[in-house]
Amino acid sequence: MKTTTDFQKMKANGEPIVMVTAYDYPSARLAEEADVDIILVGDSLGMVVLGYDSTIPVTVDDMVHHTKAVRRGAKNTFIVTDMPFMSYHCSIDETMNNARRLVQEGGANALKVEGAKEVCYTISRLTAAGIPVVAHLGLTPQSVGVLGGYKVQGKDLETAKKLIEDAQEVEKAGAMMLVLECVPKQLGEMITEKLSIPTIGIGAGNKTDGQVLVYHDIIQNGFGHVPKFVKRYANVNSSIRNALEEYRNEVKKRAFPTDEHSFTMKEEELLSLYG
Ligand code: KIV
Ligand code: NA
């Protein structure tokens, strides 16, 4: 399994870091087989696999449950788990206990928190307790209500300056890595140059130290809105739909199952069964 030291080295060597989300055993297993560097158990699972319309309803219990499944599927991959909405804006004791559960029960190697100065104390406390922390800036979906929608962040001088400062603050607080979501590519590049920790972009251009995408977006398996920054590498929805329709039609026509998928018993036993 790669470690924080490896990610630091990858940044130094200019080797891109590949991160992908996974929420369950099969997706985690396939991600590990594809040799990705990091799996993110993102709270995007609320929208992608639980059918909520934001990440707000996702709980610590949900994240523990899904992290456990991902860990079973990817025993040798570094797993980052999102701390869900309001699970790290409560008292520090409660925050530490939530973090403990995600690591100890869930099996996460690191935790991700959204935000800047307001989470710096939490980042330092978690790091001091031995939990590596990934920061998340730019479009921070847990604050969608405050941001007023899912939009590109840091497009003007004022907000760009603030983002650069925020990035430097979370690094100073001890973050091991920074996810930058939905920012202009020039800002993605600038922040990547200014920081000594690796940056992972999603909609942040090609110059960040790594990239992350949502598993279901990559393979088109699901029903969420697909943002501009997503590239689709397969269409699993249509494969599944075709398979399910074919199954349905074959059952309706009694074309399934044939002998190939049936079991038989010996003739004499059948006769005595009839008596
Ligand atoms: O929850 C998630 O999938 C994320 C990534 C989009 C970075 O936070
Ligand atoms: Na997230």
TrEMBL record:
Listed EC numbers: 2.1.2.11
Regions that span the bilayer: none
Cofactors (names): Mg(2+)
Record keyword Metal-binding present: yes
Pathway the protein takes part in: Cofactor biosynthesis; (R)-pantothenate biosynthesis; (R)-pantoate from 3-methyl-2-oxobutanoate: step 1/2
Any Pfam family hit: Pantoate_transf
Location of this chain's protein in the cell: Cytoplasm
EC class (word): transferase
Stored PANTHER family: 3-METHYL-2-OXOBUTANOATE HYDROXYMETHYLTRANSFERASE
Protein name as annotated: 3-methyl-2-oxobutanoate hydroxymethyltransferase
Protein's organism: Calidifontibacillus erzurumensis
Organism phylogeny: Bacteria, Bacillati, Bacillota, Bacilli, Bacillales
Gene that encodes it: panB
